[in-house]
Amino acid sequence: MSSLWKSTAVTLEMIKWEHSIFALPFALTGAVLAAGAWPSLRVLGWIIVCMVAARSAAMAFNRLVDAKLDSANPRTAMRALPAGALTNRFVAGFVLLSAAVFLLGAAMLNRLTLFLAPIALAVVLAYSYMKRVTRWSHLVLGLALGIAPSAAWIAVRGSLEPRIVVLTLAVLLWVGGFDVLYACQDFEHDRSAGLNSIPQAFGREAAFWIARLMHLAMLATLCWLVALFGLGKLAALGIAVVALLLLYEHLIVSPNDLRRMNAAFFTLNGVISVVFFGFVTADVLLRR
Q: How many CA atoms lie within 13 A of 284 on its CB side?
C-alpha cells in the first residue's frame, strides 16, 4: 500500500497536476457566461472533476508516449519514467483511471457532454503524437486546452453556441503562443531527434515573433468575446491586465536568454487565466 501511495505521489508530481489552473479558470469562465451567474455547485463540481481528470490523463499519456524521447533530452532525462521512478504499467493504469473518471464526470452532467467526451479525450491524448507529425503541434495543444470553455458551456446549457467558441479560439492562441516559447528550450534536441516544432522549423528568433503574433491575436479575440456577450468595463479592464502580463512574459525571455522560461510559462500563465476569470465573473455578477 505504501508503494502505491508513493507511486501515485510521484505520478502527480510528474504530471504537475497543480498546473490544471492553466485551463480551469477559462472553463469556469465558460460556465459563468453560460449561466449568466454562478452555476450550481453540482455542475461546477463535476466540471472541475472533468477538467482535472482529462488533464491528468493527457499529461500522464504524454509522459508515457515520450519516455524514450525524454531519456535522450538533457532537460527531461530526470523525469520519473526515464529515471526509473515509475513503471510504464503503473502510468498506463493511471491514464485509464483518469480517463474513466473523466467519462464518469461527463455522464453526471448531461447527455451531450457524455456523447462528446470521447472526442474531447481523443483530442487531448492526440497531442502527444503531434510533434512527430507537424510543426504546428503547438496549436493542437492549444485546442486541447481551448475546448475547456466550450465544454463547460455545454455542461451548463446542454447545447453549444458559436459565440463561446470565440473563447476557445482565444485560449488556443494563448496556449499555442506560450508553447512555442517553451519549445525554444528543446531547439537542438528536437532537430537531432527529428521532431517538429515552430522553433525547429523557423529558428528561435522567428518563433518568438510567431508567439507574439499569436498573443496579439488572442487579445483581439478576447475583445471580440466581450463585444459578443455585451460585457462591460470590468471585463475590458481584465483584458488590459492580461495584455500587461503577456507583455511582461515576453520581456523576461528572449531567443538568447531562456533562463526565466519557467517563470514565464508556469507562474505568469497561471496568473493570466485567474485574472481573466476574476474580471469577467465580476462583470457578469455585478450586471445581474
A: 20
pLDDT tens profile 84-99: 777 889 888 989 999 9
Which residues, 6+ apart, have CB-to-CB distance to 157 below 8 Å?
34
Query: How confident is residue 260, by pLDDT bands cut at 50, 70 and 90?
Result: confident
Distance of CA 197 to the CA centre of its chain: 17
Angle between helices 269-286 and 162-183 (to 10 degrees): 160
Cell of 175: 496556449
pLDDT value, residue 20: 63
Among the listed residues 60, 59, 141, 155, the one whose alpha carbon sits nearest the alpha carbon of residue 113 = 155
**DSSP H helices in 75-161:** 80-83, 88-107, 111-130, 137-157
The DSSP letter of residue 40 is P
Where residue 156 sits, what CATH number does that domain have?
1.10.357.140
- What are the residues facing 107 on neighbouring strands? none
Q: Is 91:60 a contact under the CB 8 Å cutoff?
A: yes
Query: 254 in helix, strand or coil?
Result: strand
Of the candidates 266, 163, 254, the residue with the CA atom closest to the CA atom of residue 211 = 254
Q: What would the grid cell of residue 12 be?
A: 502527480
Give the count of domains, the chain. 1
Burial, 12: exposed, middle or buried (Cβ in 10 Å; 0-12, 13-18, 19+)? middle
| Domain membership of residue 82 as a residue range | 2-286
Question: Burial, 218: exposed, middle or buried (Cβ in 10 Å; 0-12, 13-18, 19+)?
Answer: buried
Task: Calculate helix-pair angle for 24-35, 269-286, nearest 10 degrees.
Answer: 10
Other CB atoms within 10 A of residue 197 CB: 25
